[in-house]
Amino acid sequence: MERTKEMWADIHYPPTENEIKYNTMILNYDQLGSIVEDVCTKTRTTHDEIYSKTKDNHVTFSRYLIYYLSQKTGHRLNSIVRYMKSNGFATTPSTVIYGIKKVESKMKDDENINKYIGSFLSTQI
Predict the structure, then answer these.
(1) DSSP state string for the chain
(2) pTM for the whole thing?
(3) How far is CA 11 from the centre of its chain?
(4) Burial 2-20 (b: 16+ CB within 10 A, else e)
(5) Quick count: other Cβ atoms within 10 Å of Cβ 43?
């Protein structure tokens, strides 16, 4: 019998009630959802693109913006990873760190990104 990803998913999903309660306790889904919504609007990407496996530059950078803004609003790396996974996009903490660094390096060159991040963070405080 050959093992497949679908077989693994059948065994491990859906999450148990305790996992759902735990995720609800440690994550503020509303705030992360508003970050995703705002980034999608600003970068003209769809939710489907954000949570898909596409590696188009504009979609990837949109994800990186989500990671960066989530971290700046106080979310931990594992919370960001869990949120993305709960919406169908599997990522790792190292990818989140990489994305945050990419946004920080892009901020040095692009004034529009600085303005957007500044305005977003000022409305969150």
Answers:
(1) ----HHHHHHHH-SPPHHHHHHHHHH--HHHHHHHHHHHHHHHT--HHHHTS----HHHHHHHHHHHHHHHHTT--HHHHHHHHHHTT----HHHHHHHHHHHHHHHHH-HHHHHHHHHHHHHH-
(2) 0.76
(3) 25
(4) eeeeeeeeeeeeeeeeeee
(5) 17
Cβ–Cβ under 8 Å, residues 69 and 39: yes
Place of tokens 């994550």: 27
32 closest CA partner among 71, 62, 59, 60: 71
Instruction: List, for residues 78-110, the tens digit of each pLDDT value.
Output: 889 988 998 889 999 999 999 999 999 999 998
Per-residue tokens: 109: 């060159």
Report the C-alpha gap between 107 and 48 in whole angstroms: 26
**Single-letter amino acid code for the residue at 78:** N
Task: Decide if 90 contacts 42 (C-beta within 8 A).
Answer: no
